[in-house]
Amino acid sequence: KRDGMIGNIYSMGLALQALESTEMFYAPREWDCAQAFSVVYSHDYRQPMAIAQVLPALVGRSYLEAADLNCTRSSGTPRGEDAPAPWQCAGRPPCPSPLPPAPILVHYSIVNKLQGLHFNNTISVHVPAGSTLLKVLQAAEEKEPKVFSFQTEQTFWGPMVVSIHGLAANPEDRTYWQFLSGTDALEEGVGTYKPQDGEHIQAVFSTY
């Protein structure tokens, strides 16, 4: 894409590794990686799998070169008792606990126009600022459990929503729950995406 994105933010790590490892085969010009790396630098990766895939590209090595890495500790690296201690309130009363984040309002809709009885339900919930989308789903379920119940499965990329309102995704009929902010599909999962105050999140039963 013109902004440097290759697929989506989660495919960037492996894509950069592949492009860096095969640059000798490019013709008639070299691949300009500046835009792609700017996308990676500007994203706040939180999923361990995504971090594991993007780090090799950031240090200029792919998984194919992992066997050649020299992991000898640098003599200047502090360790054990030589490492600097964390900052403390020395000589002062205990540090005060930070104030809890102010709540934000998130609008959440679940939409099914594909199978069985169609539905389109919306709820507004308050969650602390900085909460993930998963917290929004949990707040909605707690407020109206008969309507906004959901189930997740744990994956290497974090929790994945597989069922909402009793309607489960099914790989045989290629259905899944797609999450959108307004009309834009989210590129992060429910365990990492953090909605903003007043944002409208939709979970739409979709096909691929």
UniProtKB/TrEMBL annotation:
<feature type="domain" description="Transcobalamin-like C-terminal">
    <location>
        <begin position="130"/>
        <end position="202"/>
    </location>
</feature>
<keyword id="KW-0406">Ion transport</keyword>
<dbReference type="GO" id="GO:0005615">
    <property type="term" value="C:extracellular space"/>
</dbReference>
<keyword id="KW-0813">Transport</keyword>
<feature type="binding site">
    <location>
        <position position="186"/>
    </location>
    <ligand>
        <name>cyanocob(III)alamin</name>
    </ligand>
</feature>
<comment type="similarity">
    <text>Belongs to the eukaryotic cobalamin transport proteins family.</text>
</comment>
<dbReference type="InterPro" id="IPR027954">
    <property type="entry name" value="Transcobalamin-like_C"/>
</dbReference>
<protein>
    <submittedName>
        <fullName>IF factor</fullName>
    </submittedName>
</protein>
<dbReference type="InterPro" id="IPR051588">
    <property type="entry name" value="Cobalamin_Transport"/>
</dbReference>
<dbReference type="Pfam" id="PF01122">
    <property type="entry name" value="Cobalamin_bind"/>
</dbReference>
<keyword id="KW-0171">Cobalt transport</keyword>
<dbReference type="GO" id="GO:0006824">
    <property type="term" value="P:cobalt ion transport"/>
</dbReference>
<dbReference type="GO" id="GO:0031419">
    <property type="term" value="F:cobalamin binding"/>
</dbReference>
<keyword id="KW-0964">Secreted</keyword>
<dbReference type="Pfam" id="PF14478">
    <property type="entry name" value="DUF4430"/>
</dbReference>
<feature type="binding site">
    <location>
        <position position="208"/>
    </location>
    <ligand>
        <name>cyanocob(III)alamin</name>
    </ligand>
</feature>
<dbReference type="GO" id="GO:0015889">
    <property type="term" value="P:cobalamin transport"/>
</dbReference>
<dbReference type="InterPro" id="IPR002157">
    <property type="entry name" value="Cbl-bd_prot"/>
</dbReference>
<keyword id="KW-0732">Signal</keyword>
<feature type="binding site">
    <location>
        <position position="8"/>
    </location>
    <ligand>
        <name>cyanocob(III)alamin</name>
    </ligand>
</feature>
<feature type="binding site">
    <location>
        <position position="53"/>
    </location>
    <ligand>
        <name>cyanocob(III)alamin</name>
    </ligand>
</feature>
<keyword id="KW-0170">Cobalt</keyword>
